[in-house]
Amino acid sequence: MTARTQHGAAHGGTLSLQRPSATEIARRAVSAVRQRPASAASTLILVAIGAIAAFAPLLPIADPDGQMLVDRLQPPLSRGESGTFHVAGTDQLGRDVLSRTIHGARISIGIAAATAMIAGTIGATAGLVAGFRGGIVDQAIMRLVDLQMAFPGLLLAIFLLYLLGSDLVNLVALLVVFSWASFARMARAETLSIKHQPFVEGAVAIGARTPRILFRHILPHLLPVLATVAVFDFAGVMLAEASLSFLGLGVQPPTPSWGLMLSQSRDHVYTGGWWLFVVPGAALFCATLCANLTSHWLQEFLGVRDR
């Protein structure tokens, strides 16, 4: 262990993790854009979708819950009897489909983001402890991970939501249960490769407490990998929420969500109301695809592709 590492460990720092300068970050960003231009464009699209969803109440669009039966099932680019121009048409209750799709993004993206953050926190903590402590603690945590991953996810979700009730809190809690294991396995694998590094051994040698070693010395090295996993998991959670809402076990009416809108459009698939499922379906497809491609771009930008 070098004198610099010893000095950094003695003062509680993490000198082994060098913070890149603004120039280095810009260089990495440009390199990542050149390596994966489509993924970089998808990242911008995903950010734009998130921004539109976040500021949906401030946008000059129709009330997503406003019913106007005289304007029901109006096709896209039509003007209803009320004088409102419907870019994406109206549904069976005369509600503006574009407005419901945008406000539905707040629910779908919000649930996915909340799930990724909570599951990431729980899974990363469990993986850190398992990888660093080893022994019976590692075995117990990883067997719990194996047990969770052995259950058929959709069937278990249907059963639990039937017992607990279909509300947003139960839905997020259930999705967290299904998502934390991937973070735990990745965090454990990375911790096993880091805990024998000189800067960690130096912190142990000077008597640093385990929480300080885990969260000040090891966790910063895991953040790039965990960020990539979180974005990839974000896409999977959106699809899971849409599937449960489509089956009537997720978001409940009148709250709009993409999965619920797809479910409500089933009765109009063969009657000409194609926009009722095309618009929310396209939004879900675009957001999921962009999230997957963004995870690839982050691999290049954060330098974790080989890892």
Structure description:
- The chain has one domain (48-302): MetI-like (MetI-like fold, Orthogonal Bundle), CATH 1.10.3720.
- The two termini are 24 Å apart.
- The chain is mostly helical and 307 residues long.
- The relative contact order is 0.15.
- The radius of gyration is 23 Å and the shape is elongated.
- Helix 2 crosses helix 11 (275-302) and helix 8 (198-205) crosses helix 9.
- The chain is 69% helix and 1% strand.
- The protein has a two-stranded antiparallel sheet.
Approximately how much beta-strand content do the residues carry? under 5%
The H-and-E topology, N to C, reads as HHHEEHHHHHHHH
CATH domain class name: Mainly Alpha
Q: Rounded to an integer, what's the Rg over CA atoms? A: 23 Å
- The overall average pLDDT, rounded, is 83
What layout of secondary structure does this protein have?
Elements: H1 3-10, H2 22-35, H3 37-54, E1 78-79, E2 85-86, H4 97-133, H5 135-150, H6 153-164, H7 168-194, H8 198-205, H9 210-246, H10 258-264, H11 275-302
Antiparallel strand pairs: 1-2
Short structural description:
The chain is mainly α and about 300 residues long.
List keywords for this structure.
307 residues; mainly alpha; MetI-like fold; two-stranded antiparallel ribbon; 2 strands; elongated; disordered N terminus
